[in-house]
UniProtKB/TrEMBL annotation:
Classification via InterPro entries: 6-PGluconate_DH-like_C_sf, 6PGD_dom2, NAD(P)-bd_dom_sf, Pgluconate_DH_NAD-bd_C
Residue ranges constituting the Phosphogluconate dehydrogenase NAD-binding putative C-terminal domain according to the UniProt record: 199-267
The protein's name in its UniProt record: Phosphogluconate dehydrogenase NAD-binding putative C-terminal domain-containing protein
One of the Pfam families matching this protein, by short name: DUF1932
Organism: Adineta steineri
Length: 302
């Protein structure tokens, strides 16, 4: 594919949500020659459709058409959708045996290896995205890749200035890195939420937050910034925590702390209005009070 990439390229993104559409938009803006970004929006939300159209991504209407037109498929969906998307694409792969499938979701190495087995041609790349969507100001998340064909994505760095980091040829390495990295943020955030809930129930919120602000000012700033932003992500994070737990269990490491973090995100996603509230103006106190109320409701129903 080397020379082909320099002349003309069609990249499919499944699906162009917050991360996917941003990557598509940046690639379309920065690539130095002809490139098309396509997708299949069948069954996707109106929000995803709007993001896709705003980025200039073309809806081809079906998986079959997508596979026939694409050189590369980037899978960027929720953890729960990852396997079904891979199965859908693999079922039509025979129509384009040169297709390269890139798995970029938050999955355990074991899950990724099972997905790779769906592609008999072996044209598969393991990947993980660390950070938020790329921005016009030059910011890029770290995109780690591993696998025999990972080098075919180097154009995303050379031509599009995305932070592509190839770490070897072994499927499972890039996804494993995300499973090690993600709990440092998601685990800390869950523990901070639990600490704030407990302080609220004990009537110690003001004293607790004053002490954190005094002795751990960086942590206080992160708590105030991160916790209100969890609400719209909590449902997705439950699935990601399950994959992290799977990884740690295989490694023989205790998963109890991770299971607690997963429970916290389930509380946000399933038991309160917080999990479906995309209002970014919610304060830390707004979120914590809703979670305290949810806990009281749960206790009352048990």
């Amino acid at each position: 594919m080397g020379e082909k990439i320099q002349r003309s390229l069609t990249v499919a993104i499944m699906s162009p949500g917050a991360m996917g559409h941003a990557i598509g938009r940046i690639v379309l803006k920065r690539y130095n020659s002809g490139i098309r970004i396509i997708t299949n929006l069948t069954g996707r939300s109106s929000r995803t459709r709007h993001l896709s159209e705003s980025a200039g991504i073309i809806d081809v209407g079906s998986d079959t058409e997508l596979v026939q037109q694409a050189d590369i498929v980037l899978s960027i969906v929720t953890t729960w959708e990852a396997i079904s998307v891979a199965k859908r694409i693999s079922q039509t792969e025979h129509k384009n045996p040169n297709l390269l499938f890139v798995e970029l979701n938050d999955l355990a190495p074991e899950t990724v290896m099972s997905i790779a087995a769906l592609f008999p041609t072996g044209r598969f790349v393991d990947g993980s995205i660390l950070g938020g969507p790329p921005q016009d100001d030059g910011y890029s998340p770290s995109i780690y890749l591993s696998g025999e064909y990972a080098h075919e994505l180097s154009f995303l760095k050379d031509s599009c200035n995305l932070d592509i980091r190839i770490i070897g040829t072994k499927i499972g390495d890039a996804s494993g890195l995300k499973m090690c990295y993600a709990p440092m943020f998601k685990g800390f955030t869950a523990m901070a939420i639990d600490a704030c809930i407990t302080a609220k129930i004990l009537g110690l919120t003001d004293v607790f937050l004053d002490e954190v602000k005094h002795s751990l000012p960086d942590m206080f700033e992160k708590i105030c910034q991160w916790i209100p932003g969890v609400a719209p992500r909590a449902n997705r994070w439950v699935g990601e925590m399950d994959e992290i737990i799977k990884t740690y269990d295989v490694a023989g490491v205790s998963t109890k702390m991770l299971e607690g973090a997963a429970d916290t995100y389930k509380l946000i996603a399933e038991s309160t209005t917080v999990g479906i509230d995309n209002n970014t103006d919610q304060t830390l106190d707004d979120i914590i009070q809703k979670l305290v109320d949810a806990l009281k409701t749960l206790k009352g129903s048990n």
